[in-house]
């Protein structure tokens, strides 16, 4: 998990543009208890851009359990993002 956190931190700008939060990822993270309902609501309330929602998402995930992000990405058909993180 430490390695995943390091990659996410180092590649945060790129990940902000790669992750698609709006089609199941946030719901999956909530189901996995990687986000609280308050965190979920806070991310959903950001309407400015997907990148800003992803920035908040990554901040919350890094504080809790970054490995849950990998699982949630896999469960929401975002394997390309998982490949990027694991291949870095």
Question: Can you put this structure into words, describing what you see?
Answer:
75% of the residues lie in helices and 0% in strands. It is an all-alpha fold.
Short descriptors:
mainly alpha; Death Domain, Fas; single chain; 88 residues; globular
| Helix-strand string | HHHHHHH
Fraction in beta strands: under 5%
Number of domains: 1
CATH class: Mainly Alpha
Secondary-structure arrangement, i.e. CATH architecture: Orthogonal Bundle
Topology at a glance:
Layout: H1 2-10, H2 12-18, H3 25-31, H4 37-45, H5 50-64, H6 66-75, H7 79-87
Helix pairs in contact: 2-5, 3-6, 4-5
Summarize the structure.
The protein has helices spanning 2-10, 12-18, 25-31, 37-45, 50-64, 66-75, 79-87.
């Amino acid at each position: 998990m430490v390695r995943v956190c390091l990659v996410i931190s180092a590649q945060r700008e790129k990940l902000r543009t790669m992750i698609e939060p709006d089609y199941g990822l946030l719901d999956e993270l909530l189901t996995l208890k990687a986000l609280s309902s308050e965190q979920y609501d806070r991310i959903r309330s950001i309407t400015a851009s997907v990148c800003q929602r992803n920035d908040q998402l990554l901040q919350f995930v890094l504080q809790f359990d970054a490995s849950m992000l990998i699982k949630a990405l896999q469960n929401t058909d975002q394997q390309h993002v998982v490949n990027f993180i694991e291949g870095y």
